[in-house]
Design a protein that fits this description.
With 481 residues, the chain is α+β, with helices and mostly antiparallel strands. 44% of the residues lie in helices and 17% in strands. The protein has 2 domains: 202 residues, Cytochrome Bc1 Complex, Chain A, domain 1 (2-Layer Sandwich), CATH 3.30.830; 205 residues, 2-Layer Sandwich (Cytochrome Bc1 Complex, Chain A, domain 1). The strands form 2 sheets. A 6-stranded mixed sheet has the order 1-2-6-3-5-4, sandwiched between helices. It has a 6-stranded mixed sheet with strand order 9-10-8-11-7-12, with helices on both faces. Strand 4 and strand 5 form a beta hairpin. Helix 3 crosses helix 9 and helix 12 packs antiparallel against helix 13. It starts with 10 loop residues before the first helix and ends in a 6-residue tail after the last strand.
């Protein structure tokens, strides 16, 4: 399941179907209405009770009863993200993609037929720092599903034929993605920011690297990095904790990794003392996709909530300053945003959008002006209150369902935070003062030595963008990022 850090909007999203256009119109008026509505009391959200245990083999288990619907959600997360690709970019992703393609006791066809018959929803994924699986099913089917979960986690076989078919499809996907710059902008940006550091690894790999990955590589990666002592099993739903605990011990307590993990090389994170511009040429492009920014903050930074509040104002919602300036007032784009992507040790800050080729510099200049205005003018109390109310209002729906809660507990495990983040979220948002916002802007919203990535027709925009920094050029048809 692919994810993107920079969620650059595309015109295609708005013209896919007539209902999409109507939904945009409706969302616009709803957003404006909410922004202008009188302040309302926002209820606090408290994380439901759960039990956290550690099995003898080191596996962390979260058990949370949620009896609203007769469903069980299972999420398993492993220290097997793209950071550990070890020079073979795409390895973590290909490994995760093959988890459901056969085990010791089930073929791929048997797994698919059985899970489909039971109505199970499932997927595997890989991110930068972790990989995992997610499943949901009716609680009455748990005795049928858990043996499959056990084998996928502990006994995947990486069937040679299935592995090669998925690898072949991935190679085609990598070629196709470069035909849509919005899909690869994030990969170019992270590589430009982090360089050789593992955070710069493209999750889905590149053509030359993926071509070299063999089944044996994925199997060895699985046997080394899918191990209990740094992994977690999260179960949320309609069950009794005592009985589920016994089931978990029965299926997972004897699990041990077959190989020791390879040491994770932790290179220093690059720091730049000048602005640079990566211009990626797509000679047939009619528009320019762009992102600019710098290093951000790690997930556990004490200013995390304050950063989210301020970013909501700058570019984190439809009525943000960036969207107002570039879309509503200037008509240069169908959407502009700012975002912080956070990892264990670092993160990125980026402003991103797209515009016509001939208005590339105009759009970037306007976005830079908005960022400068944030620094020079700061934010007033009314704007801060509106952003806080928006964040508080958006927060509970994220965790109202068992699936949302399972995802939250998995994220808590990966990044090492506890329920206080959830339970104190409303208070922490409301405690962000105008003065604290000013300090947060100065510390965490970079305005100097910015790094720019643009994908477009280089011949038409090269002279426009030289002014932003040292120019580096690539062609989108060239391998890698």
């Amino acid at each position: 399941m692919k994810k993107s850090g920079i969620r650059t909007l595309s015109l295609r999203i708005f013209i896919m179907a007539h209902w999409g256009i109507w939904m945009v119109v409706v969302c616009f008026f709803l957003s404006v209405g909410m922004a202008n509505a009188a302040p309302r009391e926002n209820p606090s959200f408290t994380l439901p009770a759960y039990e956290k245990i550690t099995l003898k083999n080191g596996l962390t288990v979260y058990l949370m009863e949620h009896h609203g619907v007769p469903l069980i959600y299972v999420s398993a997360v492993f220290p097997a993200g793209a950071m550990r690709d070890g020079g073979k970019s795409g390895l973590a992703y290909l490994t995760a993609e093959n988890l459901f393609f056969g085990t010791h006791n089930y073929s791929k066809q048997q797994i698919e037929d059985r899970l489909e018959f039971l109505g199970v929803k499932y997927y595997a994924y890989a991110d930068i720092e972790s990989a995992g699986i997610s499943m949901s099913f009716i609680n009455a089917h748990q005795d049928d599903v858990f043996p499959i979960v056990k084998e996928v986690i502990q006994a995947a076989v990486f069937d040679p034929g299935e592995f090669e078919k998925r690898k072949k499809r991935l190679l085609m996907e990598l070629v196709q993605e470069k035909e849509q710059p919005s899909l690869v902008l994030d990969a170019y940006f992270k590589k430009f920011i982090f360089g050789k550091h593992g955070y710069g690894n493209p999750i889905y790999g590149d053509l030359s690297s993926v071509k070299k990955i063999r089944r044996a590589d994925a199997k060895a990666f699985y046997e080394s990095n899918y191990r209990p002592e740094e992994s977690a099993l999260v179960i949320v739903g309609d069950f009794q904790t005592a009985r589920m605990k016994k089931k978990v011990q029965e299926h997972f307590e004897s699990w041990h990794a077959k190989k020791k993990p390879q040491p994770l090389e932790r290179l220093p994170i690059p720091v730049y003392d000048k602005s640079r511009v990566l211009l990626v040429n797509k000679s047939d492009a009619k528009e320019t996709q762009f992102a600019f920014g710098a290093l951000g903050i790690p997930r556990n930074h004490p200013d995390y909530v304050a950063v989210q509040v301020v970013n909501t104002i700058l570019g984190g919602r439809f009525t943000s300053w960036l969207n107002d300036a570039l879309r509503i007032n200037a008509g240069l784009t169908y959407g502009a945003e700012s975002s912080f992507n956070t990892y264990k040790d670092s993160g990125t800050f980026a402003i991103s959008s797209f515009t016509g080729t001939d208005t590339t510099a105009k759009a970037i200049d306007l976005a830079l002006d908005v960022l400068r205005r944030l620094h020079t003018d700061g934010v007033d109390q009314e704007t801060l209150t509106s952003a806080g109310n928006y964040l508080i209002g958006q927060f509970p729906p994220l965790y109202e369902t068992p699936g949302g809660l399972a995802k939250l507990l998995s994220t808590m495990f990966v990044y090492g935070f506890d329920e206080s983040f959830v339970n104190n979220f409303k208070k922490n948002v409301e405690n962000v003062t105008v003065e604290e916002a000013r300090k947060t802007i100065a510390k965490h919203f970079p305005k100097d030595n910015l790094q720019f990535v643009l994908i477009g027709k280089a011949a038409a925009i090269r002279d426009q963008v030289r002014k932003y920094g040292e120019l580096i050029e690539k062609d989108i048809k060239s391998d890698g990022f």
